[in-house]
Amino acid sequence: MSQVDLCSGQDLVGMFGAAVACLEKSAAELNSLNVFPVPDGDTGTNMLLTMRSAVTEASRCANGSASAVAAAIAHGALMGARGNSGVILSQILHGLASKLDGKDCLEGSDLVAGLMEGSRLAYRAVSNPVEGTILTVIRESSEAARVVSVGKDLRDILEATVSAAKDSVGRTPTLLAVLRDAGVVDAGGLGLYVILDGFLRYLRGEMGEEYVVRQQVEVEVPRVAAGELYGYCTEFMIEGQSLNLDDIRGRIEDMGESVVVVGDEKVVRVHVHCLDPGPAISYGASLGKLRQVKVEDMDEQHEEYVALKRAPTVDIATVAVASGKGLSDVFESLGVTAVVPGGQTMNPSIEELLGVVGRVRADKVIILPNNSNIVLGAGQVRKLSSKQVEIVPTETIPQGVAALLAFNHEADLETNVKAMEAARLGVKTLEVTIAVRSARIGDFIMDAGQAIGFVDGDLAAVGDSVPQLVKEMLEQMDLAESEIVTIYYGAGTESAEAQGIADMLRQKHHHLEVEVISSGEPHYHYIVSVE
């Protein structure tokens, strides 16, 4: 096999297209590697969508130099970054781009320098870096590239990088107890290995340009002309047997735009923008059982966007992230300026957050992420926006509600941020959902299908009945010192069941003010706020 000493801008696009292809095949596996066995496995999806955004931007780059393409890739990744894994990945790619400034081609030494810089930026992006994660994998693989680089060509260096990344992923459970207890490797680290392996496969000639051309067409962002309809954002999951991703993707592409099809032979997730969602949903139903069907009217969303632009100017705007109509209604009733759809399993991208921040009619903005996996991305918006943006790092919906209640229109930005930060820390959050697989987490052993409960993000209880577990967890809390309990019940939970829990609380704790609200949240059966 001949040496590969240089990589052109076109080759960079090819390498990233190959990496996206590899991620498409691995996304379901990455999503299944949850540290906690709850249905929030979105690392594979987040990394795939981040890389797709990077390739989209690169495909639009008129300048074919490695420098220009790498810069476009870094920008696209940052704008499309979703979740912590996507943000960290965007920083790695930014590091690579920074070492290609002004260069027509990528050399082995540039790759080494870029990976080392990417590692540095990735660690810097995280306030409390934890070993045994994607951070460890980029650090150890970039160091392996540096050690082997003398006298080696680009492909040899990348081979050493990929080999080191694979070994590093295998060691992640030895560095992080929660991974060891759950019997998994780090999902983000494995995703990075998949990406690097895709680069190598392209340089070896195992994934050629014919894929890259098809990929560029797939990820091209549609432009809606004036007067055209936006249609419906349609998403669903197919559970079946011998599902063929390529066939499904081909059929869905004939039905609409902005197509994302990921999964494996048994489970496939579909996303498509189309004027009529019926054919796509019917086609999916013909292949297997449909789950998590969601259809959103983008024309209605566009009207809301126009209305937002016409909204009166405020001194300080508040932006909250929430999933489910019920939760959105709660925040709107409390006077939030804008709600960004998202949360567990589908974190809004930095570009989406940045877009909303840019559209609100205020020069000062406070963001409430309401999810621990969105806090890091929100921090990037603060750096990118031309407005004065502050983050109150709410990690749960109840924290976000408490923070918004503390907002004072008459106070200045600094005073509001301090008050909202104090308020979010004054609320306890209880969350109950269903384990999606059997696992051991610390002292807890659970089977797939059992109810599992969290208090402020920490696994706290396991049981066989969701409502019974909620009652038991509430009884274990110091309700004598509490005043208000708000029970948000999810999309799959009956109102009567939630009211039964509320009645139990009222009978046993007469001093409590208990409220029951339908959240529409698709992943948690219950989210309970205790103040």
Q: How would you describe what is shown here?
A:
The protein has 531 residues and is an alpha+beta fold. Helices cover 50% and strands 18% of the residues. It has 20 helices and 18 strands. The chain has helices spanning 9-32, 43-59, 66-80, 83-98, 108-125, 134-148, 154-175, 177-182, 187-203, 209-219, 245-253, 278-287, 298-310, 325-333, 350-359, 375-384, 397-405, 413-424, 466-476, 495-508; strands at 6-7, 106-107, 232-239, 257-263, 267-274, 289-297, 316-322, 338-341, 364-368, 388-391, 428-434, 439-441, 444-446, 451-455, 458-463, 484-489, 513-518, 526-530. A six-stranded mixed sheet has the order 15-14-11-18-16-17. Helix 3 (66-80) packs antiparallel against helix 4 (83-98). The protein is globular and about 75 Å long.
Q: Which stretches are low in confidence, meaning pLDDT under 50 for 5 or more residues running? A: 208-228
Give the CA-based shape. globular
CA radius of gyration: 24 Å
- Helical fraction: 40-55%
Counted beta strands: 18
Number of helices: 20
How do the strands of the widest beta sheet line up side by side? 15-14-11-18-16-17
**Which structural class should the secondary elements be placed in?**
alpha+beta
Largest sheet: 6 strands, mixed
Mean pLDDT: 85
List the main descriptive attributes of the protein structure presented here.
alpha+beta; six-stranded mixed β-sheet; 18 strands
